[in-house]
Amino acid sequence: GAVVSQHPSWVICKSGTSVKIECRSLDFQATTMFWYRQFPKQSLMLMATSNEGSKATYEQGVEKDKFLINHASLTLSTLTVTSAHPEDSSFYICSATGITYEQYFGPGTRLTVT
Amino acid sequence: GEDVEQSLFLSVREGDSSVINCTYTDSSSTYLYWYKQEPGAGLQLLTYIFSNMDMKQDQRLTVLLNKKDKHLSLRIADTQTGDSAIYFCAESARGNNRLAFGKGNQVVVIP
Description:
- The structure holds two protein chains of two kinds.
- Chain A is mainly β.
- Chain A has no helices and eleven strands.
- The radius of gyration of chain A is 13 Å and the shape is globular.
- In chain B, strands 2, 4, 5, 9, 10 and 11 form a six-stranded mixed β-sheet that branches. Chain B has a five-stranded antiparallel β-sheet with strand order 1-3-8-7-6, with no helix packed on it.
- In chain B, 0% of the residues lie in helices and 59% in strands.
- Chains A and B meet through strand 5, strand 9 and strand 10 of A and strand 5 and strand 10 of B.
């Protein structure tokens, strides 16, 4: 149990376009979902926390207009990188929590902006 | 604030024990975690320990917590090639499910 999926697993997009990444909890209801960003050989940096049905809370330094997060249902959160640039290339990982505080992580999405 | 430090690289021979260390600064940390990340994949929770515990053992994994020194370690007994990965420690505070991660420690197991 407690499986989190992400789609796509890998995406390449052109500079200036937008790309949407989905995070789904497959067998539990996720009241809270988290979005992380990970650069090569570095740790995970929390970008934002989203609770179902409410606006996401962004960490300091993360542009909310650039990284749009929607958590419209208890099993789905989306992260849209708008007007992507090469510096947005990274590994994006989501996690989800249900009735306990334990976070279950998705497999990650590698974004490459050309 | 939360600040978690880890050393970077460890190589170990198959069958030996490996020890990964982590220090943290937030004394309000309630839960401390060890995660494993294999190349190109997400994080897998290995084990966690409550801050009122000193030690926790789970099969080949032993977690030691020195709350006075804010030091956390993970010992992997009989290290296998499948243990090659990056290991992250993380902490969270009571009533707060936000995690603060260390920089990670890459473990390479030599056959």
